[in-house]
Design a protein that fits this description.
eight-stranded parallel β-barrel; six-stranded mixed beta sheet; 24 strands; about 50% helix; binds 6-O-phosphono-beta-D-fructofuranose; binds erythose-4-phosphate
C-alpha cells in the first residue's frame, strides 16, 4: 500500500525534510525518502547544523580534508562542510527538481543569524552563498524581520531563490509576500525572466503554541477565572494562526497583481509550515501535520514527525476547513488578553537569538576541532586560577558570548569600550593578516640590507620595542646586518652604539609613527651628521604626511615605508614598524605572518570567547585586574625574555588610565611564595626547547600556594608573532572589561611638555634651572618634589620614609635615567628584590626616557599605587647634538625632571635621587636602600 506520506504528497502538499546530516546523506537516506515517501525538499537551519556537526566525530574527515588545503577560520571551516552537505542534498533532489521543472526539489541554507538585523549584509551573504553553492535547486533562507523584508525584495529581483524564515505573524507573512511580488516585478522591469524564481514563506507553528500554552499554564496555576476558556485554547492558537495565513494566501493568488505575475510565468511563493515537531509531549505527535494539510503548501518535518505521520498520520484536507473556528480561536486569544502580536514579535527576536546561540555553540565546536587538527601550529596556553577568579572568568566569557564580543571587536564596535572613536584604531587587526605591508618591497629591502653589517633603529615605544623583540629573539639571518635599537637620550648608550658600528656599512632606520617624537628626531640629527649626511644609508618608517616623511624626502633617504594611521604605536609590530626592521635583519616577513596566522584565525570574530585564545586571555587579565590582581608579572624562559618590554608598553599604555589599569611587572626575579601578596597574575612564556627547570619549579610552588598562573608555550621562536596578536586582542578586551579606551595615552603628553619646556629654557639660558637638594651625602642628592621633606632629613631617612609608604597592593617603581646596560639592569633587579621581599610588594623598573613612551602612561594615569624613585646622574661624558645647545645628557636630565614633576603633580609618591659623580653609583644606592628598608 502507498505510504501515508506518499498519499499526503499526492494530495497536493509537498513534504520536505527538516533535517540534514552527513551520515544520513551518505547512507542514501534522502534519496530513499524521495523515492519511497515523495519527499521533495529539505530545510536546514543553524540548530540543525549544530546538531549534525557540533557533536561527535562524523565531520572530522571533512574538517581534516578542508584544513589540508590550508588553514581557515571556524566560520569558513563550518561553511565548507555545510556547503558540502547542502550540495549533496541538492544533488539527491536534482532529479525531483528536473522532473517537476523547477516547481520543487529545493534545499535551503540559512544566512548567518549574526547579521539578521542588517539588510545589506544579509543581501551580500545570500548572494555569496547562492553563487558559492551554485546549484539551481537551492533556496537561501532569510529571516522575515524588518531587515529581512527589503532583502527578500532585492534578492528576488536578483534571481536568488529565497526561503523566508521565522514568520510567526500574518502581517509579517504579508510583508514578505509583497516583497516577493515586488522583486518579481523589478525583474520584469529589467526584462529578466521570472519563471524559474522560487520562494517559500516559512510560517512557524509549534513555537507559537509553546509560548502561548506556557502563559496559559501559568494563568491556570495562578487560579485564573477563565480557566475553562484558557484550557480550550491549548494547542489551538498556532494552527488557527496558520489557517488564517493560508486564507490570506488564497486571496492573494486571486489578486490582479498576482494573476498578472502568474501570467508571465511566476511561481507562487508557497506557504511552508515550519516548526512542526510538537514541543509538548501531551499533544499527538502528528498534530502540526494532520491539521495543516492543503494544496500548494509544504510541510517541513523533522524525521520523528515524518516517521510518526508515516505510521499513524490522518490524511484529510484540514487547512481550509473550519475557518470560522480558527477566527474564533484568535478572537478568544484577544478576549483573554493573550497578546498574540507581542508573542509573535518576540518569537522573531528569540528565534534569531536561538539560532545565534546554536551558531555560537557550533562555531565553538568547530573552532575546537580546528585547534585540535592544526594544534601543533598554535602556541599553547593553560591557566591555573584561584576558584573565585576562575568563576569570574567563566561568567565573563559567557557574557562576552551573549554580547557577541568577538564579532563586535572585529567589526569595530566602539561601544565595546567607551564609545569615543575606538573604531578608528583597529587597523592592527588587518595588519595581523599581513594586509598592511607590501611584501615585494620588503623582499627588496631584505636583499638591499645585505650590503650592511649593522643596522641602527632610532625610535621610541611602539616604534622600537617590537623591532627589538624580533631582533633579540630571532636574531639576524646570516649575512644580514645586526640590529641595534636606540630608544634613549643617554649619551653613554648612544656613544656605545656609534662606536660599535662601521658607519659606512650601517643602515639607519628612523622609525616614528607621528614623525615628531623628540628622541628619534635628535638621534636622526646626530647620526645623519655622523654619517656625513648620507641619505642613502637611511630609511624612514612613518605615518603618511608626518614631519619625518618630509625630512626623509628632503634628505633623500633611500626609502620611506608608510604606516597605517589607524594603528597606534604599541599595536604596530605586525605592520611596517615591525616588519621593516625584520626584513632588514634578513627575516622572511611572509614566513613571520604565516607563523602568526593560526593564532589570527583562532582569535577571529567567528570564534566564541570560550574557544578564542585572545578573548580568553583578555577575560583573565581583565577580571584579574578588576579583582585587584593588577600586577601582571611576566616570567619568561631566557630566549623569550625580550618579549616583556614590548608587552609592558602594550598593557600599561593601553590600560593604565583614569586611575585604572594593569601594571606590568617585567624582569623582576622570581621569588618564593612568601614574597608575594595577592595582587599578582603570573604569565609565563617558554619555548618548548628552552625549558628552565628552576623557573618551572618556582612557578609550581607559586601555583601550589594559590597564585594564578597563565602558561604560554611556543614550539618555535618565529611564533612570537602569534603572541603579538594574541596579546593585542587580549589587551583590547581587558580594556573593555576595565572600562577604558585601550587605544589612547592621555597622560604621556604631560611629561613630554614638561621636558620640552626645560629643554627650551636651556636653549635660551644655556643652563637648566638650578635646583637645591633637600638632603645630600657623599653619594646622593635628593631633590624635593613634594613638601614631604623635613629640613633635617638625611638621605637614608628620606629613603626609609619613601619605602615605608608602600602598602599591600602598592608597587615600587625604579625609574632610572641611566645607561641601559647589563650591569645597571642587574643592580636595579637586586634593589627590586630587596624592596619586594622587605615590603611584599610588586616592583617595576624602567630606563628613562625609554619607559616614558611605554609604561610611563600607567605610572601617571593608572592606579595611584606606585611609589617611585626617579634616579638621575650627571652624564659623563656627555654628547653634543648637532644644531642644539642642549646635549643629550641635558635632554635626558630635563626629561627626568619633567617626569618626576608630573608624577608629583599627579599625586604620585615620588622621590628624585641624583647619583653624584664622585659617589658610589648604583652600588652605593643598593647599600643605602638595604639600610633604609
Ligand atoms: O612612533 P612615535 O610617534 O614616535 O611614538 C613613539 C611612542 O611614543 C608614544 O606616543 C608615547 O609617547 C607611544 O605611544 C609611541 O609608541
Ligand atoms: O525551516 C525550518 C525551521 O527552521 C524549523 O522548522 C524550525 O523548527 P523548530 O521550531 O522545531 O526549531
Amino acid at each position: 500500500m502507498t505510504s501515508l506520506l506518499r498519499q499526503l504528497h499526492a494530495s497536493g502538499q509537498a513534504i520536505w525534510l527538516d533535517f540534514l546530516d552527513r551520515q544520513f546523506l551518505a547512507e542514501g537516506g534522502l534519496r530513499k525518502l524521495a523515492l519511497h515517501d515523495g519527499v521533495t525538499g529539505v530545510t536546514s537551519n543553524p540548530s540543525i547544523f549544530e546538531k549534525a556537526m557540533g557533536h561527535g566525530d562524523a565531520y572530522d574527515p571533512g574538517f581534516r580534508a578542508a584544513l589540508a588545503q590550508g588553514d581557515i577560520g571556524a566560520q569558513d571551516l563550518y561553511e565548507s562542510q555545510a556547503i558540502e552537505d547542502i550540495r549533496a542534498a541538492a544533488a539527491d533532489l536534482r532529479p525531483v527538481y528536473e522532473r517537476l521543472n523547477g516547481r520543487d526539489g529545493y534545499v535551503s541554507m540559512e544566512v548567518s543569524p549574526y547579521i539578521s538585523n542588517d539588510t545589506g549584509a544579509t543581501i551580500a551573504e545570500a548572494q555569496r552563498l547562492w553563487h558559492r553553492i551554485g546549484v539551481p535547486n537551492l533556496m537561501i533562507k532569510v529571516p522575515g524581520n524588518s531587515a529581512g523584508v527589503p532583502a527578500v525584495r532585492q534578492l528576488t529581483a536578483d534571481g536568488v531563490n529565497v526561503n523566508i524564515t521565522l514568520l510567526f505573524a500574518i502581517e509579517a507573512y504579508q510583508a514578505v509576500a509583497e516583497a516577493y511580488m515586488a522583486g518579481l516585478e523589478a525583474r520584469l522591469a529589467k526584462g529578466d525572466p521570472i519563471d524559474r524564481i522560487a520562494s517559500v514563506a516559512s510560517f512557524f507553528v509549534s513555537r507559537i503554541d509553546a509560548r502561548i500554552d506556557k502563559t496559559i499554564d501559568a494563568r491556570l496555576a495562578a487560579g485564573d477565572r477563565e480557566a475553562e476558556a484558557l484550557t480550550a485554547l491549548r494547542g489551538k492558537v498556532a494552527i488557527a494562526n496558520a489557517k488564517l495565513a493560508y486564507a490570506w494566501y488564497q486571496e492573494m493568488i486571486e489578486s490582479k497583481r498576482w494573476r498578472n505575475l502568474a501570467a508571465q510565468g511566476a511561481m507562487p511563493q508557497r506557504l511552508l509550515w515550519a516548526s512542526t515537531g510538537v514541543k509538548d509531549p501531551r499533544f499527538p505527535d502528528t498534530l502540526y501535520v494532520d491539521t495543516l494539510i492543503g494544496p500548494d503548501t509544504i510541510n517541513t518535518m523533522p524525521p520523528q514527525t515524518m516517521a510518526a505521520f508515516r505510521d499513524h498520520g490522518t490524511l484529510a484536507q484540514t487547512l481550509a476547513a473550519d475557518l470560522i473556528g480558527a477566527q474564533n480561536v484568535l478572537a478568544e486569544v484577544d478576549r483573554l488578553g493573550l497578546d498574540l502580536a507581542e508573542v509573535t514579535a518576540s518569537l522573531v527576536s528569540d528565534g534569531v537569538n536561538q539560532f545565534a546561540q546554536a551558531t555560537d555553540a557550533l562555531l565553538g565546536t568547530v573552532a575546537a576541532k580546528r585547534a585540535e587538527i592544526v594544534g601543533d601550529t598554535i602556541n599553547t596556553m593553560t591557566a591555573t586560577l584561584p576558584e573565585a577568579l576562575r568563576q569570574k572568568v567563566e561568567v565573563r566569557l559567557e557574557m562576552m558570548r551573549k554580547e557577541a564580543w568577538p564579532r563586535r571587536l572585529w567589526e569595530g564596535d566602539p561601544s565595546l569600550w567607551t564609545g569615543k572613536g575606538e573604531d578608528h584604531w583597529l587597523g592592527w587587526l588587518a595588519a595581523g593578516q599581513e594586509r598592511q605591508v607590501d611584501p615585494d618591497a620588503l623582499v627588496r629591502l631584505r636583499e638591499h640590507a645585505q650590503t650592511n653589517t649593522n643596522a641602527v633603529l632610532l625610535g621610541m615605544g611602539g616604534s622600537s620595542l617590537g623591532p627589538e623583540v624580533l631582533a633579540r629573539i630571532l636574531g639576524n639571518a646570516p649575512s644580514h646586518p645586526r640590529l641595534h635599537v636606540l630608544d634613549t637620550t643617554d649619551p653613554a648608550q648612544i656613544t656605545e652604539v656609534a662606536r660599535s658600528i662601521d658607519l659606512e656599512k650601517t643602515l639607519f632606520i628612523v622609525s616614528s609613527k607621528s614623525g615628531s617624537t623628540m628622541e628619534p628626531a635628535l638621534l636622526r640629527s646626530y647620526f645623519f651628521a655622523l654619517s656625513g649626511r648620507q641619505g642613502d644609508q637611511f630609511i624612514a618608517v612613518t605615518d603618511p604626511g608626518s614631519d619625518l616623511e618630509k625630512i626623509a624626502m628632503n634628505d633623500r633617504f633611500a626609502q620611506i615605508f608608510s604606516g597605517d594611521p589607524t594603528i597606534g604605536g604599541r599595536y604596530s609590530v605586525l605592520s611596517v614598524f615591525g616588519m621593516v626592521p625584520a626584513a632588514v635583519i634578513g627575516r622572511d616577513v611572509m614566513a613571520l605572518y604565516a607563523a602568526a596566522s593560526p593564532m589570527v584565525l583562532s582569535c577571529g570574530g567567528d570564534v566564541p570567547p570560550q574557544e578564542n585564545p585572545g578573548l580568553w586571555l583578555g577575560a583573565i587579565i581583565g577580571e584579574a585586574a578588576t579583582a585587584g590582581r593588577d600586577k601582571l608579572t611576566i616570567v619568561a624562559s631566557a630566549r623569550l625574555e625580550p618579549l616583556g618590554a614590548w608587552l609592558e608598553q602594550l598593557l600599561a599604555e593601553s590600560t593604565g588610565k583614569n586611575g585604572h589599569g594593569i601594571v606590568p611587572v617585567d624582569l623582576e626575579p622570581l621569588g618564593d611564595p612568601a614574597s608575594y601578596g595577592d595582587d599578582r597574575l603570573f604569565v609565563h612564556f617558554a619555548l618548548t626547547s628552552d625549558v628552565d627547570a628552576e623557573q618551572e619549579a618556582k612557578l609550581n610552588m607559586l601555583e601550589a600556594a594559590g597564585q594564578p598562573i597563565v602558561r604560554i608555550s611556543l614550539a618555535q621562536p618565529e611564533r612570537i608573532t602569534q603572541e603579538f596578536f594574541r596579546w593585542e586582542i587580549a589587551t583590547a578586551i581587558a580594556g573593555a572589561i576595565i572600562g577604558i579606551n585601550p587605544f589612547d595615552q592621555p597622560d604621556v603628553e604631560a611629561a613630554k611638555v614638561a621636558a620640552r619646556q626645560l629643554v627650551a629654557a636651556y636653549e635660551t639660558a644655556g643652563t637648566l634651572e638650578p635646583e637645591t637638594p633637600v638632603a645630600e651625602d657623599e653619594n646622593f642628592a635628593i631633590f624635593a618634589l613634594q613638601d614631604e621633606s623635613a629640613p633635617d632629613d638625611t638621605v637614608i631617612a628620606m629613603l626609609r620614609r619613601h619605602f615605608a609608604a608602600l602598602e599591600p597592593g602598592n608597587y615600587a617603581g625604579f625609574l632610572a635615567y641611566l645607561e641601559r646596560n647589563a650591569s645597571d639592569a642587574a643592580a636595579l633587579a637586586m634593589m627590586r628584590v630587596a624592596v619586594r621581599d622587605a615590603r611584599r610588594v610588586a616592583t617595576v623598573a624602567g630606563f628613562g626616557p625609554r619607559f616614558l613612551h611605554s609604561t610611563g602612561q600607567a605610572y601617571k594615569g593608572g592606579p595611584n599605587s606606585g611609589v617611585f624613585l626617579v634616579i638621575t646622574r650627571d652624564p659623563d661624558p656627555d654628547l653634543a647634538i648637532p644644531g642644539h645647545k642642549a646635549s643629550f645628557g641635558t635632554v635626558q636630565l630635563a626629561q627626568a625632571r619633567g617626569d618626576a614633576a608630573v608624577l608629583a603633580q599627579r599625586g604620585r609618591r615620588v622621590l628624585r635621587l641624583h647619583l653624584k659623580k664622585s659617589g658610589g653609583g648604583l652600588e652605593a644606592l643598593q647599600a643605602a636602600i638595604a639600610a633604609a628598608l
